[in-house]
Amino acid sequence: MLSPVQKNVIRSTLLILVLVALLALLFSRQDERAAQQQANRDVKVAAEIRQLGYDDPARRAARPLEYPDYGDGPVFLLTGNYRELSQDLYEEASQASRKVKDFKIKRAGKTLNQPVDLVLVKQFVAPRDFLQKYHKFRLRELEAYQQLTKDKPEVQAAGEEFLKAYLFRVTGQPDSLSDAEIISLAKKVIELQSNDPLLLTYVTYVLYEETGDSDAALSMWTQCLEQLRTSQYPQIIQVYLRLFVVDFSSSVSKGHKDALLVSIVRWLEEASTEQQWLDCVHFKLAGIWEVNDITFRDGLVVGCLKSEKIEPFIKHWLTGQRLLDQAWGERRGRYASNMSRGDQLTFQKGIQMGKAHLEYACLLRPDSPHPPIRLISVAMTGHDRVYEPVDWFRRSVENHYDRSLPYYALWNSMLPRWGGDLGQFRSFAGHCINSDRFDTQLPYYAFEVMLYLQDNEFIDDWSQQEKFGARTIIDHFLTQREKYRAAHPDETLYGDTPYYRTRIGLFLQRAGYPELALAEFKAAEGDLDYSQLQKAHRPGKFLLCRLFAAQGKVEDRVLEFDQKIRKGWTADAKLSEIDALEKEWQALKPTAEGELAERYYAHTGKMLQQLRAYLKGDWVEFDFEDQGLGWEISADQIDWDNADQSLLVCRKTNEAQHSWARPLITVEAPLRIQARIEQIAAHPGDTHIGIRWEELYGKTDEEGEKIPSLNVGIRGYWSYPKAELKGPNPFHKLEDLHAGFRIYTVDRVPYRHQEQSIRVMDPGMHLIDWKLNADSSEVTLGNYPDQVRFDETAPLRNHLLFKIESKSKAVRLPNPPGIVWKLKNVRLKRLPASDLPAAEAPLAERVTYWEKRVKQEPDDVVPRLKLCEVYWEQGQADRLLEMSTETLAKWPGMEKIQQYQGLALYRLRRYPEALAALELAMKEYRENVDVIMAAAEIQSAINDPALRNPEESLKLAVFGKRISTNYRVEYQAIHWANLAVAYAANGNFEEALKANQEAIALASDDLKTEFESRQKLYEASQPYRYPEEN
């Protein structure tokens, strides 16, 4: 007999066994469910891979640039949640937190949480040292070519010469060959018919940069890629090839990007075993990361996490970066006080997870500068209990102390909004200067600090620089620089470049130290970066001349004179003001010392002549005498040797994003502006050149909104003929490049523009004749006249600007080189205030106004166009035909007028002539509903069987109905009647009756009777025909 205690033990045991069994069953089912879920995911992934064709060798072979090459490895997708995939890595990093903390404390030593002292880093690695190593890293590609190429000896010699020059240039080595010399070497390789895929990958890149011929480049890279797959060349060559493809393609597909990502993963797998070059690998990987978007970065992180061969450092580094990017991105620049509790917790979690990965990456590779840069922002938020931002700054710069990223990251943490103060910036600037390393960028960060504060703290208030103590920093910098220069007389300083000479001089000028700026500009001896001086269309060259003129006792007088001459001049200003300015100009001119000061008075003398002509109501001529007196011109190269003083020829290369020219005088609208313009491209892509009337310095009107700009011009679409050859295509020559043109002109709303096709326009010089009024704009652009009423008053006080912009067809090359633009016969004239009748004014009043304008302005085509419009609206076909014929005799290329001539002949029932004129108008110009519907009716109703074409007429009529919706054009009674005629001619009397009923409902009394008679024909299933002529 069991005792009660024994019975309880047995019961408890049995109960435990039952519970264990139930738990085992539960875990078993969970495992089965997890396994089933994983199996379902695997099936889904396999299905997606099959759908994409990534596992299909045939599809990859047919289009290798668009399909990833997995080599001998498994096929995988670059999709998935990188947070989930990195969970094991996160746990590994978290478990090492004790080691990480010890590492941080040991590495910091006595400098832990101490202020920055850059003198301590004199012994650290300078960028030029690393660049030398990176150059050797890239030279391994040359070594691979020498060992593996099958080129003949003479071809190999040319290939080696090209590769040496190319790799020298792309690694930023001094004294590299010019672009023209490298292009010549590339062409030599092509002439010798090399078949080496490594060599041709880079040769193709160089030739694409010269020509922009993407078809030839992509065909060559396709051939190279197939050869590289079966070669022993390093994987990095395929990475570069696919980077070029993504950069230079006009459209980039998912396949292109996935193929690039897979090639990067395979390269990292290959490179992870090369300890000697890992810092170079990381440097290149960081560059790829920076230039790509979030989607690409997600794919790269996922690809690395799915690989078992890539070193853990890269996985932790990239995952940590992505977590921080996401956390800061979701914060969207908000202060903590403006975030909800949930948003704060999400931000904190992202920061903490990113911190764990990046700190572990530092533990794995203490010599890497990359993770510490990102950890500066973590410490800035207060989520690092050991390190301050300055500590992570040290960890970065002690490995590569002249790299700019950690400096700007540290400055963010020093702003008052993040708990810092301006005294930290002063101290930091002093340490930079005291480093005495003027062979590096380090001392120049003193100026970068002040510019950073100007942009992020002082916000356009330059007087804050004096309070900050800028003059003390500047004097310290200039003194130390002169000492260093004296101690190293044969050395070129880091800042002895056009960029830094200009940057320092411009800062000194804006901060209120003109004497120091003058000395800096003088030392440059004209070797300046004018793109900085002319940023935001600033008249930088002119203001530089003024700086040299405004010296000594006459400084205040020159500045006062300059302010007066460059103010906005109104039409009611007095000529006596010009007389007074000219008298002062005569008195100041003899004080000029030096070429630039004399240039200032040459400019202002020209401006006085132009202002006098403007106020007298004469044409103001803007010639380009003496290298553009009276102009500020931004261009890489200007052909001043042209004998024609009225012509400006500018060439734009990669140096400048946009080129422009602006008169130095500022006058008030209404204005009439005339110029002849031309654009010539040496690269496929878009160019647009024209005239702008805009506020150049971002000022606003009284209501606080930015003043809108008005612009008119011509847009060119440049391309090569499509290649029809199979296999690699030869690169086109410049003469093969051709263009189609469109015009762009102001819309009814001043800050929008509309585009119109002009199909017959040929390359060459084209006239822009623009009348700008407060209530309207009239323009003749080449063979396109237009008049637009504004919905709101246009700004009368603005700046006149001639500008060319360009955009490459390549995705990542927005600024193609080799643009030539020409400007000729520029002039303007003030106009009286507009007396344009209201749009709702009686038709007779509008007819009278435009007839008067035609008589007053016989050489302007726009009033003739508007008169044709009102004649057509009024139904005066005889007068419309007379005006259109007369205008076309004088301006035969005006397609808009050609339309009205055809419509006049149609209204006069001269149908064969009308059809010929309307077909020409449709061929030459954009779609017009009146023209299309009239032509459709003629083709349906004309009695001549040779001209009648019912099927084509119906297509045309249906198209006209559709575009009336697209263009928001009112579909009038006559249009419905035209459509009905076309339906009836094709035997569709049901639709003809419906359309004609719409016409009857909308028609005026004089047309209703005609349409009702047609309705009877349709009811009797008979088509409409024009009456027979006697």
Q: What Rg, in angstroms, do the CA atoms define?
A: 37 Å
CATH architecture of the domain at 626-829: Sandwich
Low-confidence stretches: 700-704
- The count of β-strands is 17
Number of helical regions: 41
Largest sheet: 8 strands, antiparallel
What's this entry about, in short?
With 1030 residues, the protein is α+β, with helices and mostly antiparallel strands. 56% of the residues lie in helices and 11% in strands.
Protein described:
InterPro entries: TPR-like_helical_dom_sf, TPR_rpt. With 1030 residues, the protein is an alpha+beta fold. It has 41 helices and 17 strands. Strands 2, 4, 5, 8, 13, 14, 15 and 17 form an 8-stranded antiparallel sheet that branches. Strands 3-6-16-9-10-11-12 form a 7-stranded antiparallel sheet. The N and C termini lie far apart (136 Å). About 0% of the residues have low confidence.
Question: What order do the helices and strands come in, and which of them pair?
Answer:
Blueprint: H1 4-52, H2 57-62, H3 82-85, H4 87-95, H5 97-108, H6 127-148, H7 153-170, H8 179-191, H9 197-211, H10 214-229, H11 236-248, H12 254-271, H13 278-290, H14 294-306, H15 312-331, H16 341-364, H17 370-380, H18 389-397, H19 405-414, H20 422-434, H21 445-458, H22 463-468, H23 470-487, H24 498-510, H25 514-524, H26 530-533, H27 540-549, H28 555-565, E1 568-569, H29 575-588, H30 595-616, E2 620-622, H31 625-628, E3 631-634, E4 637-638, E5 647-652, E6 659-663, E7 666-667, E8 671-680, E9 685-694, E10 710-719, E11 738-746, E12 753-757, E13 766-772, E14 776-781, E15 784-789, E16 799-808, E17 819-830, H32 843-856, H33 861-874, H34 877-890, H35 895-907, H36 911-924, H37 929-941, H38 950-966, H39 973-985, H40 989-1002, H41 1005-1019
Helix pairs in contact: 4-16, 5-16, 6-7, 7-8, 8-9, 9-10, 9-11, 10-11, 11-12, 12-14, 14-15, 15-16, 15-17, 16-17, 17-18, 17-19, 18-19, 20-21, 20-23, 24-25, 27-30, 28-29, 29-30, 32-33, 33-34, 33-35, 34-35, 35-36, 35-37, 36-37, 37-38, 37-39, 38-39, 39-40, 40-41
